[in-house]
Amino acid sequence: MFGTMLYGPGDVRFEERPEPKIEKPTDAVIKLSASCVCGSDLWPYRGANEVTAPLAMGHEYCGVVVEVGSDVKTVRPGQFVVGSFVISDNTCPHCRFGFQSSCEQREFMIGAQSPYARVPLADGTLVATESQPEEDLIPSLLAVSDVLGTGWYAADAARVQPGSTVVVVGDGAVGLMGVLAAKQMEAGRIIIMSRHKTRQDLALEYGATDIVSERGEEGIARIKQLTKKVGADSVLECVGTQESMNQALQVARPGSMIGYVGVPHGVQFDGQSLFFAQVGMLGGPAPVRRFLPHLMDLVLTRKINPGKVFDLTLPLADVAEGYKAMDERRAIKTMLRV
Amino acid sequence: MFGTMLYGPGDVRFEERPEPKIEKPTDAVIKLSASCVCGSDLWPYRGANEVTAPLAMGHEYCGVVVEVGSDVKTVRPGQFVVGSFVISDNTCPHCRFGFQSSCEQREFMIGAQSPYARVPLADGTLVATESQPEEDLIPSLLAVSDVLGTGWYAADAARVQPGSTVVVVGDGAVGLMGVLAAKQMEAGRIIIMSRHKTRQDLALEYGATDIVSERGEEGIARIKQLTKKVGADSVLECVGTQESMNQALQVARPGSMIGYVGVPHGVQFDGQSLFFAQVGMLGGPAPVRRFLPHLMDLVLTRKINPGKVFDLTLPLADVAEGYKAMDERRAIKTMLRV
């Protein structure tokens, strides 16, 4: 088969790859229904993470099980499944605590920008649907795997409550999913910082009540004004730069929580500033597995439509263009037809 | 009257001071029933905070109201009151959110290592008892004002739950109060890091289930062993150095919360490390006012005895020796008879 490899900054290749097979008795192999490019794929693509060896790209996935290892008990060939971008056994103490993304057996999914992929620890990682989902739901089910699960975790970590005031920093796909999550959690006010018309429109559709297009000090001042100088009850930091984190800290009210899901790059916190700001923080790779059943149900019952976040769809063979379009912010998120 | 001033590192003077009087209509003046030295007083005493002008020391207090300003409505002369070390109006949005220590009108109490003290924003800050408390309860009521309130906040911020595993970093007075708080919140296991026999004994009396006397890597390894490699559900960081914070981070399980109440001195966090550790953090000056009624009730009904944390009692005139004893760790906490 052909799959996606990253050789270095800007160097995405769609090339011959070995067919995935069962390597351990706990594995499954799935045929992907669709794949996509993640905002976090752009870190190595842009050279922000060093690439020392070619990387098998792609960690968001849903599809049909084609084969399972001898120890797999909860999924079987023919079933439609969604999994988290973090492989987990779902039985260790960290998993039982709801933090499957820190599973004792944690692995990060790879190689999903391909027609087939191997999923380790299939019993812990995959959740099957009762029947084959309708075709038009595939983008939304794919979104659950990472981008929605991550936005949801940001809102959960930031402890969004009914009626509360939420600020979302970052209008990438995860930020937009954060808006959707905050809306589902019945936030009273959802302010997103966004300068791009198409993203603003989608944010409004997902439930944003206010758009702040100013950045930096001006953006902070605008949010202070919107919240009568109080600040937000919950802040979702969905970028991962020092600038975006400072923005989050400045608009968070004392006693609020910042849920941060953008992988921090070069971000430092000063202990004493954080102390006197009295802002709570919880971040990390999203424990999507915790949310999978609920989010899949919301999609299957058509209560949410996270799949709209894919505003560019390309054949898998054009994956390099998919990266490029996101890098140049021509696309929010690229779906790949397999 | 004579009161306590700090002129510079190690230079505590008990000297003639003006009698406090009502300066604003929202003030009260109280006659202190007792005063004490705070661990945080040792930062400037030790030169860790610069002293640019003489400081009127003392911010923990309880006593009898002698005079109130014309706007004060909820306390009256003759009443016994306890207040927080942070002055707050208890009506602003931050106060109503439970974070009175970030009140829009916040001031930090000063001048309480004296026979009399002025308390600004008396209505918001002070809580009166129904009647004069029995004399032997004075140390515990004094403790509520800061040291207990702060330890309690650490446990609250760290979200201690019934049955959960708690690690307390720091065996100073605040750490010991953190043990007491965790016990009241029905933690299942309370591990304190302590190397001092008298503090270990008091920790055990307050409800600690395990003492870890090792420090650094060894201490971390010991806690990992005690928690079957999982780490703690909640960590109370009650020191404020980089070393103690690292200790807290290393023993906190993914998804746990660290409540940090030691004022950070020279503490930095790396965003990416914090992200992948997936540890939550909430700190700051304790919103003691939120807890005052409950904690005063626990003391008045003799359910808790935080006053035992005072293991040295001196006349107010010997306040300099009180600082010295704490600085040299001969005393956990010094109470001053006024």
UniProtKB/TrEMBL annotation, chains A, B:
Output the superkingdom of the source species.
Bacteria
Identify the keywords attached in UniProt to this record, alphabetized. Metal-binding, Oxidoreductase, Zinc
Instruction: Spell out the PROSITE patterns in the cross-references.
Output: ADH_ZINC
Query: InterPro entries given for it?
Result: ADH-like_C, ADH-like_N, ADH_Zn_CS, ER, GroES-like_sf, NAD(P)-bd_dom_sf
* GO MF term list: oxidoreductase activity, acting on the CH-OH group of donors, NAD or NADP as acceptor; zinc ion binding
Enoyl reductase (ER) domain span: 8-336
Do the record's keywords include Oxidoreductase?
yes
Required co-factors = Zn(2+)
Looking up SMART domains in the UniProt record yields: PKS_ER
The Swiss-Prot or TrEMBL record describes its family as follows: Belongs to the zinc-containing alcohol dehydrogenase family.
Tell me what this protein is called.
Zinc-dependent alcohol dehydrogenase family protein
- From what organism does this protein derive? Phyllobacterium pellucidum
Q: What is the lineage of its organism?
A: Bacteria, Pseudomonadati, Pseudomonadota, Alphaproteobacteria, Hyphomicrobiales
